[in-house]
Amino acid sequence: MSLDLAAITAAHERIRPHIHRTPVLTSERLDAASGASLFFKCENFQKVGAFKARGATNAVFALDEETARRGVATHSSGNHAAALSRAARLRGIAAHIVMPSNSPKVKVRAVEGYGGRIVFCEPNQRAREEACTRIIAETGATLIHPFENEDVMAGQGTIALELLEDVPDLDFILCPVGGGGVLSGIALAAKGLRPDIKVIATEPAGADDAAQSFQQHQLVYQEQKNTIADGLRTNLGAPNFALVQRYVDDIVTVSDEGIIAAMRTLWETMKIVVEPSGAVPYGAVIEGKIDCRGKRVALILTGGNVDLDALPWMKF
Amino acid sequence: MSLDLAAITAAHERIRPHIHRTPVLTSERLDAASGASLFFKCENFQKVGAFKARGATNAVFALDEETARRGVATHSSGNHAAALSRAARLRGIAAHIVMPSNSPKVKVRAVEGYGGRIVFCEPNQRAREEACTRIIAETGATLIHPFENEDVMAGQGTIALELLEDVPDLDFILCPVGGGGVLSGIALAAKGLRPDIKVIATEPAGADDAAQSFQQHQLVYQEQKNTIADGLRTNLGAPNFALVQRYVDDIVTVSDEGIIAAMRTLWETMKIVVEPSGAVPYGAVIEGKIDCRGKRVALILTGGNVDLDALPWMKF
Questions:
Q1: Both A111 and A132 in a single domain?
Q2: H or E element, residue B97
Q3: What chain B residue is nearest to A265 in terms of C-alpha separation?
């Protein structure tokens, strides 16, 4: 594996002109409530509304000219698809996005808005992968996996570089985990720069394959996911698990009630829009899953893309 | 009137340790949609969630020691009441807040949370004023009017000082108007520093007493208010009108549909929580009420206090 701190630093130089350097926000009220000093890294303010802009941009701009000319492809339909479409357009190449025919219109419009070329397929995993393979065979496009790709991981890891520039003396970094792209990138970068920082993954209790994998020291595949945090209904990737085992100190789980309470508190107190997946780290603090009293704790607010017509507290 | 640019500069020095210097945010997407360069001054991130923290803090800390010891009072029950309670606690004095007996619990809790002493009264304007007069007679407290008080206006005007430090070369400042405290403070400060800036007030069409007053060159009192923008259901104050006539270039009105669309766009695109009153300036841009193509335009996002269980797009 060629993914190391130097690769992440190089990624940062590469993507810097194309992404936001997101702010770190603090709140006296949430500090008082938690007894810790909390530092919120606002990737909800990132381009396309989520950290995925970093990894996709790095992967697209890391391609050599000839490879790039044939375009890129993915079978993700969420924030990564929007981010890949945007990055491809910035480089002037095609992005082929395979999406199930029953995808929500808001996701289709987001990809179209960034110039992605949508290929619809039957709504099952096999059809998605087959359609993606076919597109790649036809066009010569490069598959950019949403989290198993090393350039994607390096791009997500740039969050840690900025965070540690802004707040050098952190005790903890709390990061959500789904496929593990942002977690593994951040953990590698943070431990490379400051080996004494504790990197803690936070995962919905209803999608806890990463926590199980971590405890059992082997990759656990979970068929059913049951969580409001739609961005984290993904199983941990194999290359990501290898990095998690090496660089992550612990994985804690958070109930959906805790995620929703955290999300609502962030909206009400900090006046920022955070999606359920991005509220999981603060949910872990609320639920007392991490002993952080008196500590300096960074929380990665991974994204802010929500459907304002279907907010979770309206369902409970 | 002793309110001038020097008073606003002095207010800024006075309140600086007690308030946030709020950021100015920009959005490529909203710039592209409007054809202008938009600068959003984020008073939704201010202490107590609204610009009212500035004026109340200035008024409380401008009192001499002996006067201050007798406390302060107001018959406002919104953001000003919370801001006055907070400012009084910072100075270690009492804040008497007269509120109607049918006030929403969320407002009562906000004032209590900041240490204000609530005096309930019958839910009509006369009872509120009588209760306030009685409290002042009993305690010797100083009435801090939410917008007619000069120290309050000077405090709100500090927004313009920060804004023009961060973005010196503005063409327009768009500011909501209710009682006119923030509008008159900002207009005075902005014209004092940069006489060529155009200051435009933006007002809900269903509460357009300021627009009518401006057109008719006399203060128009409006009994009925019909707008979602609950912070702007106030009639323009007399001292505020005098300053508006002198320093404000125009007043435009915005429909409630425009206000709601603006609010939703700010949440979705910028990932920030803005209350309906704070979205009125962007509503004016959406509805094409201001010819701002190619211009550099500041918009005052006055506050972010909303009830997340009753968002306006759920009612339409």
A1: yes
A2: strand B95-100
A3: B308
The answer to whether the CB atoms of B268 and A308 lie below 8 A apart is yes
B38 lies in the same domain as B175: yes
Helix axes B238-247, B150-166, angle to 10 degrees: 30
Burial class (CB in 10 A: 0-12, 13-18, 19+), A20: middle
The CATH number of the domain where A280 resides is what? 3.40.50.1100
Distance CA B307, CA B263 (A): 13
Same-domain pairing of A91 and A37: no
Same domain for B286 and B176, yes or no, is yes
The pLDDT profile of chain A, 316 residues, written as one tens digit per residue, is: 689 999 999 999 999 999 999 999 999 999 999 999 999 999 999 999 999 999 999 999 999 999 999 999 999 878 999 999 999 999 999 999 999 888 888 888 889 999 999 999 998 888 998 999 999 999 999 999 999 999 999 999 999 999 999 999 999 999 999 999 999 999 999 999 999 999 999 999 999 999 999 999 999 999 999 999 999 999 999 999 999 999 999 999 999 999 999 999 999 999 999 999 999 999 999 999 999 999 999 999 999 999 898 898 885 4
B-interface mutation test, from A79, A264, A271, most B Cβ less than 10 A away? A271
Q: How many structural domains does chain B have?
A: 2
The alpha carbon of residue A68 is apart from the nearest alpha carbon of chain B, in Å, by 26
Q: Are residues A92 and A221 in the same domain?
A: no
Same domain for B238 and B139: no
Output phi, psi for B56, to 5 deg: -65, -40
For this structure, is A213 an active site residue? no
- Cβ contact (<8 Å) for B271 and A23? no
A117 with A189, same domain: the answer is no
**Could you tell me the residue range of the domain that residue B129 belongs to?**
53-143
Domain-terminating residue out of A123, A143, A163? A143
Q: Determine whether A52 is an active site residue.
A: yes
- List residues of chain A with CB under 8 Å from any CB of chain B: 23, 44-45, 49, 264, 267-268, 270-274, 304, 308-309, 311, 313-314
* Catalytic option among A34, A77, A103, A213: A77
Q: Answer with the one of B119, B143, B167 that is the final residue of a domain.
A: B143
pTM: 0.94
Question: Which of B304, B311, B313 lies nearest to residue A271, judging by beta carbons?
Answer: B304
CB atoms within 10 A of CB A264: 17
**Residue A204 CB neighbour total at 10 angstroms:** 29
